[in-house]
Amino acid sequence: MKNYISEVIVKLSSDEASLRREKLYISKLNITLVQILKHEWPARWRSFIPDLVAAAKTSETICENCMAILKLLSEEVFDFSRGEMTQQKIKELKQSLNSEFQLIHELCLYVLSASQRTELIRATLATLHAFLSWIPLGYIFESTLLETLLKLFPMPAYRNLTLQCLTEVAALNFGEFYNDQYVKKYTIFMVQLQTILPPNTNIPEAYANGSNEEQAFIQNLALFFTSFFKSHIRVLETSQENINALLLGLEYLINISYVDDTEVFKVCLDYWNSLVLELFEAHHNLDNPAMTANMMGLQQIPLLSGMADGLGAQLMQRRQLYAGPMSKLRLLMISRMAKPEEVLIVEDENGNIVRETMKDNDVLVQYKIMRETLIYLSHLDHDDTEKQMLKKLSKQLNGEDWSWNNLNTLCWAIGSISGSMLEEQENRFLVMVIRDLLNLCEITKGKDNKAVIASNIMYVVGQYPRFLRAHWKFLKTVVNKLFEFMHETHPGVQDMACDTFLKIVQKCKRKFVVVQVGENEPFVSELLTTLPTTIADLEPHQIHAFYESVGQMIQAEPDPQKRDEYLQRLMVLPNQRWTEIIGQARQSVDYLKDQDVIRAVLNILQTNTSAASSLGTYFLPQITLIFLDMLNVYRMYSELISTSIGQGGPFASRTSIVKLLRSVKRETLKLIETFLDKAEDQPHIGKQFVPPMMDPVLGDYARNVPDARESEVLSLFATIINKYKGAMIEDVPRIFEAVFQCTLEMITKNFEDYPEHRLKFFSLLRAIATHCFPALIRLSSEQLKLVMDSIIWAFRHTERNIAETGLNLLLEMLKNFQASEFANQFYRTYFLTIEQEIFAVLTDTFHKPGFKLHVLVLQHLFCLVESSILTEPLWDASTVPYPYPNNAMFVREYTIKLLSTSFPNMTSAEVTQFVSGLFESTNDLPTFKNHIRDFLVQSKEFSSQDNKDLFAEEAAAQRERERQRMLSIPGLIAPNEIQDEMVDS
After folding, report:
1. Model confidence over 129-154: pLDDT tens digits?
2. How many whole angstroms separate alpha carbon 933 and alpha carbon 950?
3. Which helix (H) or strand (E) holds 347?
4. Measured on CA atoms in the order 601, 604, 606, 609, is the torsion positive or negative?
5. What Å distances lie between residue 753 and 549, 699, 757, 778, 791, CA to CA?
6. Which tens digit of pLDDT belongs to each residue from 172-226?
7. Quick check: helix, strand or coil at residue 581?
8. What's a BP term from Gene Ontology annotated to this protein (predicted)?
């Protein structure tokens, strides 16, 4: 070690020109040294720090390099070692370094107070920054360190590094012991800051025009304020002088939040969200006296109940304290609101209004946080929220503040607070908003301008279904406005009009099928009369969305006769074209081969699928009308595909004509599947539709070459079995014969080919295992082995969905065989294979997402061998030298051998202890799961990896708790995400 330091000294003692040449070499030496220390600590540690400090004192140049080594050391051990070292080792290293830190601390303070060398002081500040988050607190608060940092803060050369150090200290939180020091530090800091950055500075403008150092200062300032306020804001609420400094700090942070930089805004937004949530929860509890008392534990003590009133007064006082900053924060959120997912019209980099082509997930995450923050702000003061929004809207109308961006952010903000106001206030507010937006659309000239306004009208109305349900005339006006927008060919407007129409109909559908006051007929009837005109300018995919919307309306009609009449009127256009095509085909089958005709058939089927997805059972008259002709077209197109591929080889499957023919086949299957899936569970529907499909669909699949087989056949029959369950048992052999062997041959050659067939095949197999298990028992032993081999192949798969489906299927099989008369026979054949394969995927580090299901399979197996269900031995007497007293003892020994072979790095005692723990906890799933989790983390394969998937189940439970919390706060869950039962007023 001393030799190394001597070498560094020699290198650094040379002239400056030589030093510059050697810097890269020295940097590499530094890294090497730190790696050695990290792995050979603490043996070399105790002598190293004194040696390093002694070397640092020989010259300022050497001292600078020593600081670089110390910084590397802190980063390597405490920032980058997670996963490389156990928590215990990291703890020991920290303790070891703590005991030696006094020397480092003294050296740093000495340099900061005595040196005039800028680069050395900067290196020392960088080193301090690396250590401050974990060193003993006495070194920070019971020395001159903070005082020294605050002296350096005003100096431009050290400002950013000093601010980073102060931010690290601000983030520390350990009770009230050092509150006085924090207040003092903050007060001095604020005095200095006002000189460096006067409060009246236009910070966004200064940032835009600033140097890299100046921009970094604004970023660091945001981090300082958010770190300090998160941990210590309550300390500043104690006196008027401190409150003034606090409010000034919040003012700075609000101004920084307007900076046009995503990362700066994220830092600020994160803090605003946490502050507003804290204030909202206090306000929420203030409205609930029982909660207020409960917070303080006063509900059981009548004599102290008065304290709850005192707490209420404190909460009210605190709310008033923050009223000013919160009002400014509302304006910030409204002015900078991110774009919601529903908005499809955006401004491109050239300033043109275009249709969005791809979702920006970062923007969606930002919108979610901003929306949540604004909802809390709305709850804190509904009146101020409404006032600020209407004031900004009036500035759009009079042209004072008109711009696309200003209107967009305002309307996105208005849409985001839906549900947060009381209904009466929301109604009054929205009447004014929609009226003003419609007026703005009328008075504004220019196609792009109108497209932007239209987009915003559609977004806002789509967010307020409760309002629309209560105001029929507004609802009708809005829908008619959407019909107008469906003729507007500006990119994105028609798409958004169709999307908004669907969203509104889903939440207000009953309003369209009753005769409203002042009307002669239900709106749906009026709509069906003008339907050809309304959809005249729409693209096919937009027409399909329109049909889905009208299907939603018809589905809400309670009178069967009227419902059938509406359906017949809805389908007039596609049925006319269908009849024409089938008529021509009867005269000459070649008519169906024309590409334009094939496209027309595809479009008709897609229109039917859209209507079926809304109507479910009520679509029966329509599908009955076209079903048999549709199967004939399917059969004919399938023969055309087979002929093309037979003559042209695999390349033929990629030609445009074959792709188009296959699209028709897929859409046929999708239409049937959609209808059967959505239809209510009525056996007569299954009996009507399943038998005619057996040969045209199943037989066709079996006869076809692999490249011509549609994976949708598998998902269709999975849906049918899931729907009609045991009624399908007699059909399972036919299904099995048609799809099983030929599909297995397609998917088991590798993990890449036919990806769609893989997942759908195992979904079909799972449906059979769940609902038609007796049909599986009737399989021959060879066929059953094929099934089990395919299940094992599935859960070995690296594609998560396939592996998960395979594991779920395996669990179904295990449970069903356990309850059957063939339990002994099945488990004797497959128990050890299953255990071995499950342990293989459990421990290979590639299948972590399946952890929960791996655990359930293992628990099932270990519970089984300890029960009395298996009456025959699991071992093979011809290979096992001596009999075991029971299956549990055999499996215990087998598992120990299996794991000892797989994990040679673990001792025999560790493996034995693990297996014993498994048997001891078989009936306690949480303990069983934690035991396996500990074993995995203990093994070398898992210790250096990200193991969050092992805790996925707990994370999902936490997400559900968070959703329940959000449901309890009006507005936090968006209206279109709530599966509400509409109540007509």
Report:
1. 888 877 778 888 888 889 999 999 99
2. 7
3. strand 345-347
4. negative
5. 37, 23, 9, 31, 17
6. 877 778 888 899 999 999 999 999 999 999 999 999 999 999 999 999 999 999 9
7. helix
8. embryo sac development
